[in-house]
Amino acid sequence: MEDKTWKTALQNASFEVSSEGEVRHKPPKVHYSKGYPAVCLPGQGGVSIHTLVLTAFVGPRPKGYCCHHKNGDRADNRLENLEWIPTRRHLLEHIKKRGFNLLTTGQVRQIRDIHKTGRWGRRRIGLFLNLNPYTVRSVLQGKSWVWFK
């Protein structure tokens, strides 16, 4: 007997039929939004997988709360790794883990100049300037210090 094969049903991208007469809903494609796995849902647009998991198993996000990955791995969306926590606490957790650097215009200029050489990545630049690599990344990706040219 041949292996079961699946084909798109009647040009409807959402459903497939098998050679055995079964019907299934196609799993949505996973994409990444700010480093978090997400899916596009009909009528809802992009939704992060961690939000789907917490909402289904814990309940809707309380006002003023956000999702926290306990182990820091954005791709680990197991229920045991997720929790709703106050947004302020979440921010403090990230500051503790990643550091909170206040930069000078001179440091920002150094980060950009060193990066332009192409010799060092953000981690090495951070070590050289005694800065957190996430701070360096934020400058290089234009998430902070956008106003400073």
UniProtKB/TrEMBL annotation:
InterPro entries xref list: His-Me_finger_sf (IPR044925), HNH_nuc (IPR003615)
Query: How far does the signal peptide extend, from start to end residue?
Result: none
Domain HNH nuclease, chain residue ranges per copy? 49-90
Pfam families per record? HNH_3
Which named protein is this? HNH nuclease domain-containing protein
Native source species: marine sediment metagenome
